[in-house]
């Protein structure tokens, strides 16, 4: 679904490199993958992500894979704060000491004996994580990557107190996060590790929930994302054929879902703290399954992700382009210019014509663009450079861009739009365009028509 402005001849075709069909297919697949993730890498550089996960990740032997993925993100220039839980390890410690667990209001009642178990468990998990990071990640793509880990008394806590007559003793909630110290560590390219323990100004220790620490840290740091790795695949809803994954929710919809009481158990707890983080200014919250290998990378670098994303504002926006979008537009159209679908445009031309472009942005990354060039005297306009990223095709983005161009054309008083295309004739014919001739083009555009490309002229009445 691409159109082009035929101002210059198409570049000469380049012979395909020698190699087997299988090799060429692998090469093409790699290039497509690299082009699809490159915008994310650019968008995420120097951003701050808070990643929270329960002690189950360690308990089930999934830690090394997660640490490898975290190392990869840090190598891309992403600032990472890791927050770990330790629930299964606390249970083990309490069982060893013959202490029975008590819960109320969804929280552990932490007496003196339970607090000692919580300290031992948190220390055990923290040391496991630091050891996994320090061993150099052997037998992984990030082997020999050096990561410095910082942990400390970054979390100030206060007691939960007495709720409905139940004294929670040493169970606490976050009072304050030392955001300045954490930012200083992140700026030094260190990974910050937070445990589910906090201390009062008087030195009293409190047992905290991982979710509370993670959401409080994300808010204090004004993080760009908070990610919860959970035992659930994400937030689910009842579908015609059974439970279906909710892939994207606005903050308002997430709040309504939480208030409905339909999401219970641990999933409801993650939802609650995701809402808290977004309300506190965090742009995106993600709930993803830890059991899926590479789920963190898949969620961040695939268009649809693998879990549930909650966004402070609408995840996708259709808007007019600004000078900041020039690089994203060039990245979108480059593959189509290389294969001759589009006439090649340089950065200078895109910069000059940026006011003509509309773009679709998804999670800070451009996935589509189109331009309108009006010929006011003839009350006609050319739609050019309609492009949608391969991973977003089939989602309706092309039609949304077409409608935006039509709206802009009507607002300019135009009565028709046309496209010049060599490969996407049928896509436009299905959407109300009809075949026309070069003689139907406005005079100024007719003089610039590229007879070597012999593009089809398609026109639509508005």
Second rung of CATH, namely the architecture of the largest domain: 3-Layer(aba) Sandwich
* Helix-and-strand structural type: alpha/beta
User: Main beta sheet, described?
Assistant: 8 strands, mixed
Shape: elongated
Kindly report how far apart the N and C termini lie: 19 Å
**Could you name the CATH class of the largest domain?**
Alpha Beta
Write structural notes for this entry.
The chain is of the alpha/beta class and 462 residues long. The protein has 2 domains: 271 residues, 3-Layer(aba) Sandwich (Carbamate kinase); 145 residues, Gcn5-related N-acetyltransferase (GNAT) (Aminopeptidase, 3-Layer(aba) Sandwich), CATH 3.40.630. 37% of the residues lie in helices and 25% in strands. It has an 8-stranded mixed sheet with strand order 5-10-2-1-13-17-18-16, sandwiched between helices. Strands 19-20-21-22-23-25-24 form a 7-stranded mixed sheet, sandwiched between helices. A two-stranded antiparallel sheet has the order 3-4. The chain is elongated. The N terminus is likely disordered. It catalyses: L-glutamate + acetyl-CoA = N-acetyl-L-glutamate + CoA + H(+). Its main location: cytoplasm.
